[in-house]
Specification:
Layout: E1 2-4, H1 11-18, E2 27-30, E3 35-38, E4 41-44, H2 45-53, E5 56-61, H3 66-70, E6 75-80, H4 85-95, E7 100-105, H5 108-130, H6 135-156, H7 168-180, H8 182-192, H9 199-207, H10 214-228, H11 235-244
Parallel strand pairs: 1-2, 2-5, 6-7
Antiparallel strand pairs: 3-4, 5-6
The chain binds nicotinamide-adenine-dinucleotide (NAD) and SN-glycerol-3-phosphate (G3P).
Nicotinamide-adenine-dinucleotide binds next to loops.
Amino acid sequence: MLVFVTPHQFMDGICKKLDGKITGDVEAISLVKGMEVKKEGPCMISSLISKQLGINCCVLMGANIANEIAVEKFSEATVGYRGSREIADTWVQLFSTPYFMVTPVHDVEGVELCGTLKNVVAIAAGFVDGLEMGNNTKAAIMRIGLREMKALSKLLFPSVKDSTFFESCGVADVITTCLGGRNRRVAEAFAKSRGKRSFDELEAEMLQGQKLQGVSTAKEVYEVLKHCGWLEMFPLFSTVHQICTGRLQPEAIVQYRENKL
Ligand SMILES: NC(=O)c1ccc[n+]([C@@H]2O[C@H](COP(=O)([O-])OP(=O)(O)OC[C@H]3O[C@@H](n4cnc5c(N)ncnc54)[C@H](O)[C@@H]3O)[C@@H](O)[C@H]2O)c1
Ligand SMILES: O=P(O)(O)OC[C@H](O)CO
């Protein structure tokens, strides 16, 4: 059983290194939050693993800030699977502990897109914190973000279920990452510097070698939206990328009209 958990930026290279080396009856699970954008469109990391290595791949996503789990504070997570429930039950059994409650959901794309897209929402929440806009604004950003997450997931994969957004991988992960995650923290510092310090510089200074997922995911999402002609339908997602790249000021995070999707 193979467990993948690295920053998503490295997964293409890792799969290329593993290509041809995996034989026998192998099952994989990805904890990686992110996507690759190929010429033919977005490719979720579990699909990349499945396609490049020829193996089935489930996902594990949820409201899971690592250092809280490390000290055994209670939390939940979601296993997303396709096909047979049997393998999902095996993963649930493997990961479950009295303080880590894992639920299987038959919606691998929905679960993985929740884990991926909420990192863009967390960047937006960090801008709100850095600008000291307050709790009402932050709640508004989280709500708009969740709505865009659901709308984009369903446009990309019509099979995605509404109920997935109420699992740990959905609304709960939006909340915990917007309150306590690294994406939020670094975006807060970016906004405090009024965009004068780059994300790369802040990441290197604040994360000691760890890699942010939200900034590159915002770029990948922007590319997908632009390619599909959907930019105006997703103002929060597109504004986050434009702020990250310096085309807009952090204040722009509340300066757009929400489109009714
Ligand atoms: N840390 C969290 O709280 C948390 C929680 C849930 C999910 N995730 C997700 O898990 C994934 C990994 O996050 P993380 O915080 O464990 O990341 P991390 O930066 O701590 O790196 C995890 C692993 O990736 C390896 N790695 C680093 N650079 C690499 C490279 N160039 N090539 C190959 N491997 C490399 C590291 O050696 C390490 O073992 C991300 O997609 C993240 O969103 C993280
Ligand atoms: O620390 P972050 O912002 O990468 O978020 C960590 C996890 O994805 C939360 O579930």
